[in-house]
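Two quick folds needed for the group meeting slides. Do the first one here.
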Amino acid sequence: MTERPSGVTTDGDAAEDLAQSTSDASLVRTLARSREIEAQLAIDPSRFRMLTGDRPTGSLHIGHYFGSLTNRLRLQELGVETFIVVADYQVITDRDGVGPIRERVMSLVTDYLAMGIDPQRTCIFTHSSVPALNQLLLPFLSLVTDAELRRNPTVKSELEQSGDRPMSGLLLTYPVHQAADILFCKANLVPVGKDQLPHLEQTRVVARRFDERYGRANPAEPVFPAAEALLSTNAVSILGMDGQKMSKSRGNVIELGMSADETARLIKRAVTDSDRHITYDPVGRPAVSNLVTLAALCQDRDPFEVAEELGDAGGGGLKRLVTEALNDRLAPHRARRAELVAEPGYVRQVLLDGNARADAVAEATLDDVRTAMQMVY
């Protein structure tokens, strides 16, 4: 058994916690708890503070739109206090440079605002602009071991795929950086996919260990809340237009900032098959079903109903439907986005204001941490 940091007590080995978080039984429990949280959100959303975000490694696309942005907007409109981190520091966890990062950061913020994210209700900020958030890494890193970090699924996967390339210290500590993202604002709700559950469990481990080692005199008032996962009960996965995972390098992504004509051209090249009769069969006909799913999402319909209505329309008929449905769905977003692109000063001010707000929250949390650690001099 790996030696734990001195003074750390747990209710089980952290590695077992992380493995358990992705087990079938745990996933069922998490889904059940997510349904309970949804019911609580409908009654009293003020009980929750949410943290979510994106790495600025490229433009946002339709996978982000349907996979996370619509849900963020929904939760904002319910009244959940929300923090969205543009994780610019995390760009360099697995890259040699930052690329056109300023352009990408501003593009993300522009898409958030075009989506309807309200900067008066949602705090949008960048990692690099909140020193106190990043300072939390130091005490947090003292609560985890090298072995535990290397067993994290994301870190383990990167290590296995790296070949002879040495792993950076930043990549190794990536799970703890994510913990700092969540804990700096004391978020108690994090929308995640099931593949991200180990990261959230690592956050809970860090929060628990901090309170066990340094916590306040009253155990009923921990320094950090236990952040909970909000899993979507009807999440769908959208593939690229070639039927593979969406990737800008593959040229199979429809970005939110693309024009209607660009969208049409990409969909026209989309992979289908030789069977003219359209059915919804994600296992047997993944590429066709992906397009059916996209049309259904755009029209808020059931994919089986969409496929049945298309019948013998063939791939051409399917692509025409998807093109029309997607362009209609994105038209308001694109119109608002064009207005925002023409107002770069406003977009920048939104980010400056969000950075200032996040910095104040992070400083208050860092004060709590210093007090708990008896480091107020």
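Then this one, please, same format:
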Amino acid sequence: MNKPKLYKIAGIVLKISIIILAFGYIYNEIFLKEDLDKIYSFLLQLQNEQNAYIVFNVFVLMLLNWGIEIIKWQFLIKKIEKISFFTSLIGVFSGITVSTVTPNRIGEYGGRVFVLRDGNRWKGVVLTIVGSISQLVTTLCMGIVSFLLFYPNFNLSDFIEFLSVFAAVFAFFILLTFYFNVSILINIIKKIKWLEKTLKYISVLQSLNVSELFIVLIFSVLRHIVFSFQFYLLLKMCGVDILVYQSFILTSIIFFILAAIPTIALSEFGVRGSVSLFIFGLFFKNMPCDIETINMGVVSAAFFIWLVNLAVPAVIGAFFVFKLKFFKP
């Protein structure tokens, strides 16, 4: 069998495997988890015209959320290759599908760059990481500000409070320093011999100026705002009585905590739900309210937003996986 035919068969097998695994994870998380029965029953009780409108808006915001990411990635990738919005869309949604079975969604990088020309893929990974770092910087920044507003609810000792805030602020400024000064990273790599070969890929970072990096950061902030508002709408739908600014503060803290927890993308719902319950429990603990109802509303909102923002895009991305070119003939 000649190599081109062998590569073609291997590519098809890999694509089918990715799709089967992705759908297997989605099916397992949505239909085979026994503890979801209460959530489904709770959500079914919320069926009315007003909530249907909220659900519609949440799906629109999902498209806006990923639309911003598509434009952000297209903006970054233009440094090495001009791609259309649709090609960027294929890359982003395929990346979501590939990421479903990888820790901390690292497969998203690989899924995206296979829409690029063969010679640009490693540089594409580097630029994609820049986009992820901008999102992480945003998460840390919002989380630090929110933590400073909310930390009295944690009832921590003065030392732990100081240590937590100091560590968060220190990490934020380190990331921000590297983000806007990539030359520092390149100079470090130049001094490490076994990393010298990566310079031809990492050097693409030098083509990004401060204003472009700032634009990428703005895209990331917009995504954070969109996602936070989605969660607020779902909380209101699920009967959690909270003001929009309070919801944004708590959501930012949840993101902040989740950023430090290794997860498989589609098992992330369980982690999200647990962290959300903990943070919202601290907020409502001294208020005259039915805490069981609050907990049910919070975990249901967390499940629904996971379903809309990750599971649904992963299914959509499965239809684009066959357009990827994993192997060069």
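Slide caption for protein two: The chain has a mean pLDDT of 81.
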